[in-house]
Amino acid sequence: MKKIVFLLLCILAFNCNASKDYNLITGTWHCGTWIVESSGKDLCNDEVMFNFNSDRTYKSQIGYISEQGTFEILNDQLICYPRDKMEIGVQINKLTNDTLEFTMSRSGRKEIMTLLKQ
Description:
- By secondary structure, this protein is of the alpha+beta class.
- Helices cover 20% and strands 53% of the residues.
- It has a single domain (2-117), classed as Lipocalin.
- β4 (65-74) and β5 (77-82) form a beta hairpin.
């Protein structure tokens, strides 16, 4: 019986953390920095925007490329499912009320993007 209660508490704690992450990520985000680790170059500009909604849909704009679809947060990973494209997963390094930082691989290059909530 103790094992069942412990398991239920673990599941409840996991779900509470996931709900907290979804509450934190909801909103409109703009690029603060976008660092290519190998060169130190910052690719950030005014044309980078992500909007995550409470219904777990999102829209993004990076330059002339617009996407929309659904997303989920699993084990510190943000996974986006754009319409008619393959899923995209990034490692969440930091998620607070005003900062979302994640590590991604683009063409095999490690890049770290920091988004600031509008």
